[in-house]
Design brief:
By secondary structure, the protein is mainly beta. 0% of the residues lie in helices and 50% in strands. The protein is globular and about 40 Å long.
Length: 113
Amino acid sequence: QVQLVESGGGLVQPGGSPRLSCAASGFTFRAYIMKWVRQAPGKGLEWVATIRGDGSQPTYADSVKGRFTISRDNAKNTLFLQMNSLNPEDTAVYYCEKFGGVRGQGTQVTVSS
């Protein structure tokens, strides 16, 4: 069955640059558009970034454009999110999502000094 396992979150200082990973299994990873979404405390789900199956055409929410980079390694069935210049408003649970709505369990990113 489809499995998505995120990692790389934790407590980060403002301005920090963590990289999130999402290990995918149970489907043909390279064939699918993948996304990162996030949910801040007390708020709804927010789309962060999308990337096509071949790694082309990354797109970003305005709130993260210029700071975050989505990428993928199809040989390793892994999706990444490089996050730079973090601020407290980036505090959220980050999920990777397979096109069609399947999400992982998420990884918590807390930005605080």
